Amino acid sequence: MNTATIRTLARGAATRAAARPSPQTVAAPSMRLLSSAAPQTSSSPGLPDSVTRVGTVSAFPNEYPGQNYVFNWCLNADGVTPLKKSAFRICKPLDLKVAGLDVPKTSPLKVNAKGERGKVPEAGSDQLDFDAFDDALQSAKDALSLSDSLFCPEGHVPGTRTGVRVISNVGAELAPDLVAYLDRAPKGEHPTGQPITCYVLAGAEEFAGYAIEEVEETGDDGAKVAVSVASVVVTGKKPTLKRVVAGIELSAEGLEADAKERAEKKAAEEKGE
Fold first, then answer.
1. Which pLDDT score is estimated for 46?
2. Of 74, 142, 149, 262, most Cβ neighbours within 10 A?
3. Cβ distance 266 to 252 under 8 Å?
4. Are 255 and 195 spatial neighbours (Cβ–Cβ below 8 Å)?
5. Are 229 and 196 in contact (CB under 8 A)?
6. Which runs of consecutive H residues, i.e. helices, occur in the chain?
7. CA 109, CA 263: separation in Å to the nearest integer?
8. How many CB atoms lie within 10 A of CB 137?
């Protein structure tokens, strides 16, 4: 065999070896990326994006202005179930527009409710016993649950950090003024119970009163902490802003007095140790 023939055979062997990859150079089959790591594109024209969307759902189905599941559960905790699926959480002027109401003309709104304070007695006083208050409170909750729409302004008692929620079936005649009266508070994504809850019902018998009770809450460290909360009930043919404000102010003063008393008691106990 001559030298030229040997070179030709060697070239042919080398070519075949290059075409047949060795085990060390075979590429591993590509792994299919998880849907969360790779963008998805719809392969079916005409389908909504939500069919192929991957990630955390940002809204519950069947929600719309006035129908918010998280807020409805919060109202349930307050004893009111919006059966007509129309309950508006109102924390700022824009929320009024969403509820179909006008923005207040004056903000902040100063309200002088001194003349109404004597018409909003505290439960347990000579003017109002606990049973009468409890009956009025439950009746208001039941009627509000059946109302066509609920308007629920939230905020702080002016000049304080005490939270207030008003649950009412009164829209244009009351909600905008309450938004203007209350100090604006952070709305937050998840509504919670407030220290003061007002139940305001129009088209009912005349009643006004408030009650303060002590409850236990779990602190950030997991320990049980005693706090006071207030409930205000104002019902009538057309409940007035001043009477509602009187109930809010009286409740805030009662909560402040309770907190001061607990602080003094705690300080005395620590001093005694």
1. 59
2. 74
3. no
4. yes
5. yes
6. 3-19, 69-77, 93-98, 130-145, 175-181, 241-272
7. 33
8. 22
Please tell me the distance from the alpha carbon of residue 95 to that of residue 65, in angstroms, as a whole number.
10
| Look-up of token digits 């709104």 | 109
Closest CA to 120 of 189, 63, 198, 193: 198
CA angle 196, 217, 254 (to 5 degrees): 35
Tell me how far CA of residue 61 lies from CA of 46, 50, 68, 200, in angstroms. Answer: 20, 11, 10, 30
Segment 208-233 shows an average pLDDT of: 91
Structure-token match 């559960």, residue found? 73
Model confidence, pTM: 0.77
Query: Which range has the worst mean pLDDT, 6-10, 206-210, 225-229?
Result: 6-10
The residue assigned the tokens 């389908």 is 47
Up-side HSE of residue 87: CA atoms within 13 Å toward CB?
25
Look-up of token digits 């809204």: 59
Count of positions (residues) in the chain = 273
Measure the CA–CA gap between 79 and 234, rounded to whole angstroms.
16
If you ran DSSP here, which 8-state letter would residue 217 be given? Answer: E
Strand partners, 196: 164, 230
CA 264, CA 34: separation in Å to the nearest integer? Answer: 59
166-201: buried (b, 16+ CB within 10 Å) or exposed (e) per residue?
Answer: bbbbbbeebbbbbbbbbeebeeeeebeebbbbbbbb
Can you tell me the distance from the alpha carbon of 163 to that of 155, in angstroms, rounded to the nearest whole number?
6
What's the confidence (pLDDT) of residue 218? Answer: 82
